[in-house]
Amino acid sequence: MRFMLLQNYGPAESGMGPINEWSQADIQSHIEFQIALNAELSALGELVDAQGLAGPDEARLVTSDGQHPPVVSDGPFPEAKELVAGYRLVDVTSFDRAVEIAARISAAPGIGGAPIRQPIEVRQILGAPDPS
Description:
Blueprint: E1 2-9, H1 24-43, E2 47-52, E3 60-63, E4 71-74, E5 83-91, H2 95-106, E6 120-124
Antiparallel strand pairs: 1-5, 1-6, 2-5, 3-4
């Protein structure tokens, strides 16, 4: 079963500010945790991909009717202060295992090593419907 684990950054449950306001040591500790978790999941054969995403100021919305040139506009403009900062695509045996991994991501170290307690969205990837 494949799951997308979406990592948001914004006002965390712990009250920590955005990562760009952390000390260099706290940022380094957080990144080292992410690298170690990716290595562990890779060794278990569960990690398909993991990437950080550019901020919403660099995002664009593309709309097309399939016949005219696409319309490219600025956005999206999140109403909240949180943004999708990255994702992990995992291939695991169960939803429970995906939740276990998401919980570890949510507990990543933040300021002073305290868990960031950031919500992680867990979404199963659905296969294409059978055309027959």
